[in-house]
């Protein structure tokens, strides 16, 4: 997985579902940024949630600041924008994962039109995960294409990753497909370290790894002024 991340110079935001070598299921979320405003963010840890918030006095920006993860009513939801709250509410109202992610749209940030990427995990049984991506199609169509895929039965060392962008360091394009990878991590902290090391230091902002059902105990790391700061 380190190589997969390192090969993508600017992945934007990413979601991860993995089983460590020690057999532990984990979810993960990370932020990268190129502009000053994108870099001035951190992951605020709450009882049953993680939120992306500004580091300073800057005002709220709906595309940069949002609920990134929530555990509620037997479900874990995490992703890169306001759709996390929407999907969580729909699940709480009795919808299944496919219905909860139905009708999602990509971000209104032309020309790149960043995909909305979301993971839903059922905490009531052995956690299964559903990945969702709403992206603008290539060509002239403007309605969102929505991919929803169930991911089950990860073996130790298996990891599934989705990022918003693919970049060679100069050109940035929106992507949606999943990437299947392998992790050498034995536990949650090692998985976080593996993700963090794979991100380019000049763009990384924050990352979190958490066990399903234990979001309040998420392992989090931030990059501030060139210094890695565990939280």
TrEMBL record:
Top-level taxon: Bacteria
InterPro entries (UniProt xref): IMP_cyclohydrolase-like (IPR020600), IMP_cyclohydrolase-like_sf (IPR036795)
Signal sequence bounds: none
One GO MF term attached to the UniProt entry: IMP cyclohydrolase activity
Short name of any one Pfam family annotated for the protein: IMP_cyclohyd
Inosine monophosphate cyclohydrolase-like domain segment(s): 10-209
GO biological process, one term: IMP biosynthetic process
Protein name stated in the entry: Inosine monophosphate cyclohydrolase-like domain-containing protein
The organism of origin for this protein: Mangrovactinospora gilvigrisea
